[in-house]
Amino acid sequence: MQRERSVKVKEVITALCRLLSGLNVESIPTAEAFRRAKFDRKDAGVDMWSLLSSLLQRAFAPDCACQDSKDNAFDTQLLFVRSALWHCGYGALWVVGPQPPSHVEEVGSRDLLLALAWVLSFRNLLESLLAEKVYQLDTLSTTPKGVMLGQRNILPHGPQEEETDAMKNDQTLQTLRWQYGKLRLQWKSLLSAQEERSRLTHRVVSNINASAICQTNISGSHHMTSTALDKELERIQTLNGILEAYLDWKLHEPLFYSWMDSVIDSSLADAFEVKSADWPPGERAVTLKCPHGDKATRAIRRLDKMLLRLQTELRVRRIERSTLTLTSQGRHQEVSQLSERQRIEVEKRVAGYLEGIRLTNASTITSRGFLPCLQDWPPAKPSHRLQMGEPGLTAIAGKLQASWALKELRDREAVLQWQLDRLRQNMRGEIHKLASTMEGVVLIPPIKR
Amino acid sequence: MSIVSLQVGQCGNQIGHELFNAISGDCNGPNRKTYSECSNERFFHESPTGELVARSVLVDMEPKVVAQTISKACKSGRWRYGDEAYFSQKQGSGNNWANGFCVHGPRHKEVVEELVRREIERCDRLAGIFTMMSVAGGTGSGVGTYITQCLRDMYPQSFIFNQLTWPYGAGEVIVQNYNSVLTLSHLYQLSDAILVHENDTVHKICSRLMNIKHISINDVNKVIAHQLGSVLQPAYTADSSGYYSRNPIGELLSSVVCHPEYKLLSLCNIPHMSSTSLAYSTFNWPGLLKHLRQMLIASARMEEGIDWTVSVPSAVTSGGESGTNSRQKCFNVSIANLLILRGKDVSTAQTGKLLSNICLEAILKNVNSFSAWNSPVPFNGYQKSATLVSNSQSLLKPLDNIVRKAWDMFASRAYLHQYTKFGISEEDFLDSFTALEQIISSYTHL
């Protein structure tokens, strides 16, 4: 089992390496280097470093002026990598900490591996590199003319002055609907053109391959066809190779990130053993402190207070009511009847309000954007997934755990659903009321399929 | 790039056959190699023995028409239908939409879907699915609607283009208006565009223009096929830059039916005449275009009896106040038009000047609502011919008639049990009426 898994990991990493080399990223290490980096081996450091820096070079080359920082200029390279990582939102200590490493070797290979995984999942980096590469290779992928032509009327001309606003709005709306419909139709056309192209390309390539095999099989008497055709073939094959590598990688991507989970686990385990004597307690986490943490704790505190107040109020009311029933025994029947009728409704309303209050406050925790951070102490079951957009934080010290956030969101969804249902029911009642007052009007719901 | 056709019911099968006949006949002739290659790729595939096989699926609930159609096609010698591209049953739908939609459709769903899928997979590129059917009977309307619904689910990204034949107003089938209402209301949500032929109009074309004494259903179908062919045959479009368009249905739709509330298309075509007088007639483009323009604005469906007094209201052209009251009563407001010219010297035809300013329309002021295609190859024996696909108010009156008649019957609950017994409830009827009223109101308030 274990062995099978490790074989799988090797396959996954090889797929990644193949894709990266297809995308012209330089100095790609072997899969073995990745494995060694997982265990923070010193010897993998250089490999991982050069991969990370060349990947970042590829990604940010158009944006940055610093070039040729290869060779010995490790300082500039270090600066570049750190700022690029910072730009990607990666907040490990060696990137943003107060004491930056003065030399590359001070950064552990595992840290580099983690950073690499982060960069890979950052804003579809691979996809944009792939698109760039495909654009270079694919001579046919020009913007279709039809779309450009069709859009020539998209800008409305100057509106007539004497028209009323309502007219103008209506016209603009209708024009928009027309243009939107046109776009949809053109999108469908493009889609079918794309399908046709891939089908034809497939046919051409398979024919070429077959004939090439035939030619080599028959004899050398046939000269190879013109060099232009060869070049074309080569181009198409490279393109295919890259696209295949990408598909392969996409297939394996989840495995890669689950492997990265295990890397994080081992990193956390190690960190626990070492126990952070070097770091001051405030900076124990390998992370940036979450900027919303304080707000979250404050919100929780406020919520607690409010809950307490409401509970006391409720208790007071209950006592009042019980005394009331006691004192007015004669009207007991009536009161209880009234309460029976209204109690459910009142309770519902109160519950709704409570939920609302809870949500408006609690939502501040989940609805704000959180910076993901890595932790230093070992949780029982770490749930980090770099791949996911917003990994959870532990509830302790104002941080959220993914599962917790999920639960929270699910609760919220249920409440909102409930509120929606209630609102819908109200609306329906109102519509019925309205409709009954209007004579000769039959309201018919929209047609169902 | 190919169009997969679907012929449903008696009417659909007959029209389909005439369409393929017209197209295959049109491709034989001098100086039209590219044209016929393109046309053949569009409508036919080649069998291993080199015969042209129509990219078409035939569906009917009776065996007779399908068998006739297939054997007729075989006899033509130029083309045939696919060996297994048909599906027929024994008992028919009894002119009942509910029977077709609720019983036959679901029962034979898989078989028909499989037939269509096979045709579609044979295409390098699917330009669209073109369905031909009538709205009066039970099979074409009911089963056709059901199949369209299935195809929409199967191919959400493909173009689905429906050709409907509307029955004679005088009545072919007692429940034709029920069937029409149910078909139209459903198709309006499923199809990308609905192209309508009215039997009454086509019949008039046959009697007055083509001088046919005893008009048979075949003559009517031939005219419809001619009109369809003149739209669907290869042509140069604005986007095709010197080649025959590879996306005919897509371009057709994106020039006339972009707005989801306006999907009804009508067709008019000039000239129509008997083959004997055709030999002695000459046409010039300005004359044809002038006629066509007047036909459009006066909503005449044929060359004869055009009301020449109708003109484009000045209030609309000047772009001043644009209210319905300032318009002439008979002026036919259109949203968008597509002009297709076929024949000699087509490049000399001045289309823009004549037709660009007639589609002024209050709602869609800033939309380019006129496009033109052309092809130098004469179509179907006519040296010059012009076709106009228009999304306009011209179908408003017949549609209103259908809905009104159906509503009158519905109000007295006539024949309703025939539908409820198959599972179409009164509420379904009401929903359909509402949907059609909505369409009528949209077109009225242009």
Automatic annotation (TrEMBL), chain A:
Residues 89-265 form the Tubulin epsilon and delta complex protein domain. Pfam families: TEDC1. This is Tubulin epsilon and delta complex protein 1 domain-containing protein. The lineage of its organism: Eukaryota, Metazoa, Chordata, Craniata, Vertebrata.
Automatic annotation (TrEMBL), chain B:
It comes from Triplophysa tibetana. GO terms for cellular component: centriole; cilium; microtubule; nucleus. One of its GO terms (biological process) is cell projection organization. It is found in: Cell projection, Cilium; Cytoplasm, Cytoskeleton, Microtubule organizing center, Centrosome, Centriole; Nucleus. The keyword GTP-binding applies. Its main location: other. Acts as a positive regulator of hedgehog signaling and regulates ciliary function. This is Tubulin delta chain. Keywords: Cell projection, Cilium biogenesis/degradation, Cytoplasm, Cytoskeleton, GTP-binding, Microtubule, Nucleotide-binding, Nucleus. InterPro entries: Delta_tubulin (IPR002967), Tub_FtsZ_C (IPR008280), Tubulin (IPR000217), Tubulin/FtsZ_GTPase_sf (IPR036525), Tubulin_C (IPR023123), Tubulin_CS (IPR017975), Tubulin_FtsZ_GTPase (IPR003008). It holds the Pfam family Tubulin. Belongs to the tubulin family. Coiled coil: none annotated. SMART domains: Tubulin. Residues 40-240 form the Tubulin/FtsZ GTPase domain. GO terms for molecular function: GTP binding; structural constituent of cytoskeleton.
